[in-house]
Amino acid sequence: MTLAVDTSGGVAKTISNDVVEISWETPREEWEVTGLDKSAMERILLLADFTVEITGVVNATADFSHDVFKTVPSTAVARTTTITIPTPIVLAGELLYHNYSLERSDSGELNYTAEGSLESGTLPTWA
């Protein structure tokens, strides 16, 4: 499995080696439109979304995880995020990363969590 995320400058960086956990969702909103004449729910699917949460080990080496996410607090740019599991199964989308938090455990590990949400209004699709 690989994960690539753009830097704030738009350059894709593969950060898979620093990632220890990733979760993503591709939910859709639902509109309940049940008429009085029905005895079961009726729904219409509405807009789609794509969110991701990445947890990893802080790697301050150039072109790795910290280099990719360190500008999250100061720049609001869309970043192409590409999840590949395994090739050629790919899910990609334009995300705004709205959180980059670091945590140091009492034993000394320095980990991060980065969270992103769909930005572009374009559906992420599996390729």
What does this structure look like?
- By secondary structure, the chain is mainly β.
- The chain has a single domain, classed as Roll (Pnp Oxidase, Chain A), CATH 2.30.110.
- Helices cover 4% and strands 51% of the residues.
- Strand 7 and strand 8 form a beta hairpin.
- It is elongated, with a radius of gyration of 18 Å.
- The mean pLDDT is 93.
Summarize the structure.
This protein has 127 residues and is mostly beta strands. It is 4% helix and 51% strand.
Keywords:
127 residues, elongated, single chain, Pnp Oxidase, Chain A
Strand and helix layout:
Elements: E1 2-6, E2 12-14, E3 19-25, E4 28-32, E5 43-48, E6 51-57, H1 65-69, E7 79-84, E8 90-104, E9 110-118, E10 125-126
Antiparallel strand pairs: 1-2, 1-7, 3-6, 4-5, 6-9, 7-8, 8-9, 8-10
Instruction: Please identify the top-level CATH class.
Output: Mainly Beta
Number of helices: 1
Describe the largest sheet: 8 strands, antiparallel
Mean pLDDT across the residues is 93
* Helix and strand sequence: EEEEEEHEEEE
Question: What's the total number of strands?
Answer: 10
CATH architecture: Roll
Round the Cα radius of gyration to an integer and report it: 18 Å
Main structural class: mainly beta
Total domains: 1
Proportion of strand residues? over 45%
Q: What is the distance, rounded to the nearest whole angstrom, between the alpha carbons of the first and last residues? A: 15 Å
